[in-house]
Hints:
The chain is of the alpha/beta class. It has helices at residues 8-17, 23-26, 82-93, 112-120, 124-139, 156-167, 185-188, 208-220, 247-265, and strands spanning 41-50, 53-62, 68-74, 97-101, 144-154, 173-177, 195-200, 225-230. The chain is globular and about 45 Å long.
Amino acid sequence: MKFVPGLFVLLFIIFLSGVSMRASDKETAEGSNQKQDESSIDTSTVRYVSGTDTVSAYLAVPKGEGKFPALIVIHEWWGLTPWMKSNADEFARRGYVALAIDLFRGSVATDAQGAMNQVRSLPKERAITDLKAAYDYLSNLKNVDNKKIGSIGWCFGGGYSFQAALNIPDLKMCIINYGTVSSDENLIKNIHCPVLVIHGDEDKAISPDSIKAFDKAAKNIGLNVEVKFFPGVGHAFMNPGNPSYKKEIVDEAWKDIYAFMDKNLK
């Protein structure tokens, strides 16, 4: 399955599948990412140059001295929601500088049609430029170890975490949570970092078969790829605002994510 520019096919399937969480539903971060003592981290909105634009992002930073590993955190098709920021906060509490980027330039959808419109109007090349700019921004922070920067994203953002691995040669780790991938060996040979894919075995938006095809192609050419299928859950199952959310399954997914991050970035 080749990556579809703009993700139009994916969006259409998601829309028909009824994955239509309201933004207010997603503002409650439960399970592994509940708000904790904020004394160990600093958060801010930062601005930096991407191509000819100036963009903003949410930055969560561990307090203390030293060089920290870092993550580019990539949102779902809803935009940069409070749930995405809460994930960045949790990463910072675990010792990572986390930059939650905003590919939609401040727009946050409140229904599936609005989310679809956001993604449809996003130029793919601009998004890739933003990913590279986020990497460069993190690389130049004095408290970041610029040899230990990875990416993580969910759904739409999972697909762009995949794009980060394709387009940023020095990326050290990539996590794709139920995002669109490709089994084109001529394309994925451009990936130079370990990749973890988290996926539900009942996903109707992104076929588990497409993930298996990616896994097979990646192993054919010697890429370092791990694929974890979770039973009884569908698309976007990690978001607590989604009907397919199951805390016990999500807790297991987070354990795999944190272990993969620590193995490859610490």
